[in-house]
Design a protein that fits this description.
5 helices; mainly alpha; globular
């Protein structure tokens, strides 16, 4: 089980924006990827830990790109 994370007002606005845009079929996959990355970062997962959760992660995101994501 993962502990619940307090979401800042800024991150809540990001999630709200994602949910509003998700209705477009062209954006569904992109939004899923962005939300996955956001959740990994919210839980302070390292790149290696995120790769354990999502084994396909290295095929779409380098370690440097992952570490550059800011919340």
């Amino acid at each position: 089980e993962f502990p619940l994370v307090q979401i800042s007002k800024k991150n809540m606005m990001l999630l709200k924006g994602f949910s509003e845009e998700m209705h477009s079929e062209n954006n569904i996959l992109l939004n899923e990827v962005l939300i996955d990355n956001l959740i990994y970062k919210l839980y302070n997962l390292t790149y290696e830990e995120a790769c354990l959760v999502e084994p396909e992660l290295p095929t779409r995101l380098t370690k440097a790109a992952y570490e550059a994501i800011e919340i």
